[in-house]
């Protein structure tokens, strides 16, 4: 799967599980695509690995920042058609691809059994280091390790299978916040821009200058549209799409 897409490849997709390190990561990286998916009838769920407790700019928010950021993410998710948001509750800035985290990811993927898992990219982007917060990389690494081989290996975390969370083969992994050289799929989100911007506006604790944030997002989306070969003026979100189990996959686990 490569090149531009109009509905984010929604054809044949019924269920998607999206992972992020912090509240607002998905809204920056993929909310337009999510809005296209949900409008096409796809069931999309979010999983936030940390509570974002180290984010924000107002010292007065320290005591309430976790509840605030959870509420912001739930409100943002609802605006792009996502009703179910899971919170793993790890500490912001301390996320690691540990077996504890990987097991949580495996359990949730097996529970939801999505057609697509979407997560942050595990590789550092040296062109824009801010995309590669250590928690972002840890999110991507933990999800990638979970997707293969643990999700499809019945002998990985065997107590999960004993509890009814049986192994299965995931078809596709979509990674966002990727280094530019890794991007191979662009989704036209021009019509979804209002929903994406509305979702981003919910994260008011993170945006001391909302106007500048929105200008930056539009500039980035326009650049991705050009890079993806879309028509002039079209806006895109970009992904590194990996086929985990396709028609020609012969590996076991």
UniProtKB/TrEMBL annotation:
One of its GO terms (molecular function) is hydrolase activity, acting on carbon-nitrogen (but not peptide) bonds, in linear amides. Keywords: Zinc. It comes from the Bacteria. Pfam families: PIG-L. One of its GO terms (biological process) is glycoside metabolic process. InterPro entries: GlcNAc_PI_deacetylase-related (IPR003737), LmbE-like_dom_sf (IPR024078). The keyword Zinc applies. PANTHER family: LMBE FAMILY PROTEIN, N-ACETYLGLUCOSAMINYL-PHOSPHATIDYLINOSITOL DE-N-ACETYLASE-RELATED. This is LmbE family N-acetylglucosaminyl deacetylase.
């Amino acid at each position: 799967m490569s090149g531009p897409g109009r509905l984010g490849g929604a054809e044949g997709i019924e269920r998607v599980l999206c992972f992020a390190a912090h509240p607002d990561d998905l809204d920056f990286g993929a909310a337009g695509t999510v809005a296209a998916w949900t409008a096409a009838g796809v069931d999309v769920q979010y999983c936030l690995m940390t509570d974002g407790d180290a984010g924000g700019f107002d010292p007065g928010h320290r005591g309430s920042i976790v509840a605030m950021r959870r509420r912001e993410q739930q409100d943002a998710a609802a605006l792009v058609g996502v009703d179910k948001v899971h919170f793993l509750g790890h500490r912001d800035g301390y996320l690691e691809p540990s077996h504890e985290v990987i097991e949580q990811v495996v359990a949730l993927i097996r529970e939801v059994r999505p057609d697509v898992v979407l997560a942050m990219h595990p590789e550092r982007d040296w062109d824009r280091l801010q995309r590669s917060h250590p928690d972002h990389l840890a999110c991507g690494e933990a999800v990638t390790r979970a997707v293969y081989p643990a999700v499809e290996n019945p002998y990985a975390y065997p107590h999960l299978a004993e509890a009814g969370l049986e192994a299965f083969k995931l078809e596709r992994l979509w990674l966002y916040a990727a280094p530019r050289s890794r991007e191979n799929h662009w989704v036209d989100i021009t019509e979804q821009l209002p929903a994406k911007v509305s979702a981003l506006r919910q994260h008011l604790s993170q945006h001391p200058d909302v106007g500048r944030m929105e200008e930056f997002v539009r500039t980035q989306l326009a650049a991705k549209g050009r890079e993806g070969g879309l028509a002039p003026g079209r806006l895109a979100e970009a992904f590194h799409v990996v086929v985990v189990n396709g028609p020609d996959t012969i590996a076991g686990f």
